[in-house]
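User: Predict structure, ligand N,N-dimethyl-L-histidine.
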Amino acid sequence: MRDTAPAATITAPDTADFARALLAGLSAPAKSIPCRFLYDAAGSALFERITELPEYYPTRTETRILRERAVEIARDAAPGNVLIEFGSGSSTKTELLLAEMHQLYAYVPVDISPAALTDAQARIKQRFAQLRVLPVCGDFSHPLALPAEIDGRPRLGFFPGSTIGNLTELAAVALLANMVGIVGSGARLIIGADLKKDERRLIRAYDDEEGVTAAFNLNLLKRANRELNADFDVGQFDHLATYDARHGRVDLYLVSQTHQTVNLLGKRIAFAAGERVHTEHSHKYDIEGFQELAGRAGWRPLKVWTDAEALFSVHVLEAA
Ligand code: SAH
Ligand code: AVI
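Assistant: Predicted complex:
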């Protein structure tokens, strides 16, 4: 991600990537679909609804911490800095920081969802008319071209939401190490990490009463029907959330209700009754464990804040 390029327009990711990943994931003995495909326009809209659910504590808890600490965080953004946000989504939490960061050179939201980026850019431009907003649409786990305009400028990283928890430990360390290269030695990263807690509370957060998380998960199959002309009978799959205490993570699955066959890109994919398709990991950390993980990637812990119930943590890290 060190390379830079002219400011890109927001373009939709190519469907070939989805096609390849879906075929590979559904042909494996233990079926899975990478979670980055949850976020097409419909998925991003469903995620926004999740953030408002009474059961989904992470968004409102992290927002509260950021609101309380925004002035302190803004002191880390020296005049002329570039704020780079990973998995920016609606950029709602970012507004809290931008309101206190008065002399930024630019805000660079990075996201895989063109719909989320387009909406966020319009809203941010409206509220912060003087701010240079340079969106980058792409997968943050792969090398990405950042806008040439920010070349050589000091940077501050922002990675809220506990989106880091959606990566396996190995991938999380690799991404965090990549971020050291992106922001540069001595620069800081503000990162949210969801905390371990009572298993029932976790399951409720990922299997809400209203069924919004189920719709978010099942949208993967609808997306395959829309974009790849597959013929998933979405009503024949259930949403399942489990907690894996050994790995400290919530896992989401789509479960086939019956024995069924689906046509996908000229292939017939068979599902046994009760067979699971893994769709998302959501790791939960303790503070020391998260700092240790970040340390392996070259980050030094500077500060950490949590809420009164110790549901969620926000860390300030410094690149070694
Ligand atoms: N930061 C927001 C949104 C979190 S949802 C918040 O805290 O509420 C996760 C976001 O990361 C989504 O907007 C999704 O589109 C994006 N995302 C997921 N995987 C990604 C990837 N591999 N590369 C870039 N963006 C990704
Ligand atoms: C974006 N990410 C941190 C969310 C989470 O909590 O793992 C995605 C999500 N999946 C289901 N609900 C929310």
